[in-house]
Structures are given as structure tokens and as C-alpha cells.
Task: inverse folding
């Protein structure tokens, strides 16, 4: 079935790297996404990766995809206090017209 | 700037009193989505429009309806809000053939 799982909370110190992990169950995932949500706000698309790729880098963000293990991670280098937010992993499946299936979100706390 | 706009940002309604939430977009995207996000939960798709073609998720209650009078606007109607419908309602858009969904800031609905 469709299931996306994330750990609920991560705390890091400013300047450290953060790694947020996600697992999914459906092997027909086509794209996998990371969204950021600040308090009281909508979702901001950070990056996404096609399921045929294993890595994508975009400035401070690195996405790693292990398709065999159905594991996705988001690494944020040099984490800043402005990175504090909830991070959602999401997937789209083949043939489902772009519907996003979200994990429950990981709250990232960045301590000064 | 091209964007997804939701009005109002905060809406209070009474139990059982119909309410309409509004979404507009200047991106000229042909797909529009409505998601419901309850507190500390993942967003969940209610329905989407592919142009004028309405697509309901199987588990969306009948209490929720939607209208899309033109490309730019989409409305979410809740016919008889219950206390369990209090949530953040997120509108998103995408263009067929592209993989990004762009979200509005959301409308937080309170039911008293």
C-alpha cells in the first residue's frame, strides 16, 4: 500500500549537518520530494528526485535515494536557525495524476 | 510574482454553517489540488481538478465539494462543518508534464 514514514524530531546545532530520513513502501514511486513547512505557513518545495536517480545536490541540500531499500534522505549542510521547520517527504506514484503522498513530517530544531 | 493565493488566511465558522474557501493562481497551471492538514499530521489530498475534470479521492467525505469556474480559481465548499473539519486547508497547483506542485499559504479553519 501507500505508506511514507519519517522520524518525528531532529535537533542539531547551528553549523552542523542535518540528515532527515524517510522510507516508503510503494515500488511504483516515480518522484520523491522534500517540502519545508514553517509555522502557520504553506508548503515550500525544496527539491525532488526522479526514482531512477540516486543523488541530487542543490546548494546546501543533498538528496540520496536508495531505491532497493526504499529509503530517501535529505542532508542540509551548515544548518542555520532559519532551517528550523517541519520537513515533509512525499512521493508520487505511476499513473495517479500527481497526487502527493506525504510522510508525517520531521520537526527540525536548530539550536544556536 | 506568479503565485498561489488563498483567502482568507484564517476562517472561523460555526458548527453546521456552510463555508467556502478560495484559491487563485497566476501560474496558469491546469491542475489544482485541495489538501486537508490536521494538526501535527501530514497533508491529505481531498480532490483535484485536471482542467475542468473533477477527481475525488475515495475517502473524501460528501460534506466536501469543490468548484472550478475557470483556470485561475478553485473553491472548497464545506456544506456542514463539524468540529473534526477544523484544519489547515492547502491549495496547490501543477502543470501536466511537470513534476512540481506549488502550494498556497493555506487557510486555517476553526469550527466553533
Result:
Amino acid at each position: 500500500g501507500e505508506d511514507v514514514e519519517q522520524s518525528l524530531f531532529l535537533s542539531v546545532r547551528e553549523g552542523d549537518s542535518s540528515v532527515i530520513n524517510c522510507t516508503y513502501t510503494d515500488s511504483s514511486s516515480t518522484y520523491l520530494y522534500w517540502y519545508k513547512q514553517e509555522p502557520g505557513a504553506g508548503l515550500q518545495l525544496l527539491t525532488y528526485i526522479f526514482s531512477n536517480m540516486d543523488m541530487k545536490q542543490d546548494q546546501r541540500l543533498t538528496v540520496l535515494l536508495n531505491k532497493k531499500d526504499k529509503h530517501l534522505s535529505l542532508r542540509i549542510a551548515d544548518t542555520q536557525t532559519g532551517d528550523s521547520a517541519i520537513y515533509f517527504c512525499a512521493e508520487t506514484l505511476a499513473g495517479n495524476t500527481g497526487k502527493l503522498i506525504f510522510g508525517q513530517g520531521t520537526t527540525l530544531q536548530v539550536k544556536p | 510574482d506568479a503565485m498561489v493565493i488563498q483567502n482568507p488566511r484564517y476562517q472561523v465558522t460555526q458548527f453546521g454553517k456552510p463555508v467556502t474557501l478560495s484559491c487563485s493562481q497566476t501560474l496558469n497551471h491546469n491542475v489544482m489540488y485541495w489538501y486537508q492538514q490536521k494538526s501535527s499530521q501530514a497533508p491529505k489530498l481531498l480532490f483535484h481538478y485536471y482542467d475542468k475534470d473533477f477527481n475525488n479521492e475515495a475517502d473524501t467525505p460528501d460534506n466536501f465539494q469543490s468548484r472550478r469556474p475557470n483556470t485561475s480559481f478553485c473553491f472548497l465548499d464545506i456544506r456542514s462543518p463539524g468540529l473534526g473539519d477544523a484544519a489547515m486547508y492547502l491549495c496547490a497547483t501543477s502543470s501536466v508534464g511537470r513534476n512540481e506542485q506549488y502550494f498556497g499559504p493555506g487557510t486555517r479553519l476553526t469550527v466553533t
Observations:
- Chain A is about 0% helix and 60% strand.
- Residues 51 and 67 of chain A are 7 Å apart (CA to CA).
- The longest strand of chain A covers residues 29-37.
